[in-house]
Every structure is written in structure tokens, then in C-alpha cells.
Amino acid sequence: MRNSAREAALTIIFAQQFNEECNETFRKNVYKQFGLTKEEDLRFAMDLVAVVEKNRAELIAGIEAACHHYRENRINPTDKSILLIAMAEIRYFDDIPPVVSVSEAAGLARKYSTDTSAEFVNGVLAGVIN
Fold this sequence. Notes:
The protein is mostly helical. It is about 75% helix and about 0% strand. The protein contains six helices and no strands. The termini are far apart. The model has no long low-confidence stretch (mean pLDDT about 95).
């Protein structure tokens, strides 16, 4: 399921904010923890992580622009990780409608972040797609 793949990617991208070198063993354990046994789901999670890693600077710039130059280092680390995933989907995954990426990101924020995070994430991403 793509939900689980997004959650696994979120875990890895979040961890990379504190330890840039999340090794392959760590990643495999995360994928296993989220039950990514289907090749399609595992590939989606791996692709999300790879796109964020490769384009992090550009994605951060897009987040800052959408936040009206609110510096990324002031954004809650969980929210930043969620925004990175959603921005990567919006910009690099043509098979995912942007509205789906926004909805999924808000859902992740509701599940993993603060009470106001879903609104924050939704607002930032709405600015990106509009």
C-alpha cells in the first residue's frame, strides 16, 4: 500500500535530518517494519527517498517560497519531512495527482505531528499547487 510506503519514506527522511547517513540496514529494517513486501510498494518508498535525497535543496527552496520565505530550519522536523515527500510527489511523480499528494501529506501530519500541522502542511502545499 502506498500509505505504508509513504510512512516508511517519512521515517527515513525524518531520520536523515539528524543523521545524514542512514545506512542500508536501517532502511531495510524500516521497510520491513512497515510491511513493504510487495515489490511495487517497496519501489515506491525507495523512489520517494531517492528523489528527496537527490533534490533536497530544490525541494527546500520550494517549501521556503511557499511559506513566504519562512526559513526551513524553523519548520517542525516532522512537518518538513512530510512537506519534502509531498513536494517530491508533486514535482517528480506524474502518475500522482497533486491533490492526492496534498491529502496524503495532511493525513501523515494528522497521524505523526502536532495538532496544527495538518492545516500548516495543507496550506503550504495548496500554495504550491495553485
